[in-house]
Amino acid sequence: MLKKQLNAQVHFLTKSAYVSLLKNNPYIDSVYQIDASINEVIGDLQKENYDYVIDLHNNLRTQILKFRLGMPAKSFNKLNMEKFMLTNFKLDKMPKIHIVDRYLETVKHLGVKNDNQGLDFFLSANDKMDISIFPKNYIVFVIGGQHATKILPNEKIISIIKKVNKPVLLIGGPEDAHRGEEIAKAFNKVVNTCGKYSILQSASLVQQATMVITHDTGMMHIAAAFNKNIYSVWGNTVPEFGMYPYLESEQSKRIEVKGLNCRPCSKIGYDKCPKGHFKCMQEIDENLFLSE
Fold first, then answer.
1. CA angle at 99 for the pair 112 and 84, rounded to the nearest 5°
2. Mind listing the pLDDT tens digit for each residue in 30-68?
3. CA spacing 20 to 30 A to 157: which of 99, 168, 185, 230?
4. Which domains does the chain have, with CATH numbers?
5. CA dihedral (227, 228, 229, 230) positive or negative
């Protein structure tokens, strides 16, 4: 929207792991990347002589970056206190709007307005997957996640797939490959693609799926950009943080165990359930995954 509505030159700074997600975006003129420190690129950024800096991370690293650039800037309000109140005292003071709309508040003063067209995600012709090698009318199941408490146990995923009773492609990174094999061997109709394709190739599989089942992950947001019907599964995190699929369809579902007094236990996640019972995932109702 910055480029379309303001005719601005837009440069984007991100970690090197995420550069591929931006390389096909026609609304970004240049992408800078770092591995660990802004010192890797600060000299190049200073030479650009920017008019304005928009800081959507608002952390120590970006505070230092803004200081060293010395340009006018606006930072995103992360609502850390509200998140603290929700995770620690279960008091929901979060605004009832999506984080995308909160991001847009950061540039509202520049005259940027929400076009209500949803998210964008761009693939090149080389990223497009030939799906003729896969079962027709498949569902994508994104089995990974950044933290263990965001991920359904394998036995739960197997139970859900039995309820779905449709061809399924499992999507995830190399770290999910072994889990994917364990799930796939329980079925004839399940194909494990975890770790076999790039993020963009996996995104192409999502784009061509009939629907998507996913944890609270980045691939969930890619699915939203492709306007897929999404069954999003929530463990220790909750949609109230504002990070559910943006402009999700009426056929989409948010699937969670409501009423647990330990949930949410974190705004991000843990390596294991702090309580030891993992009820937020173990008690997910498999019948909710039946198509209506």
1. 135
2. 999 999 999 999 999 999 999 999 999 999 999 999 999
3. 99
4. 2-78 (3.40.50), 125-289 (3.40.50.2000)
5. negative
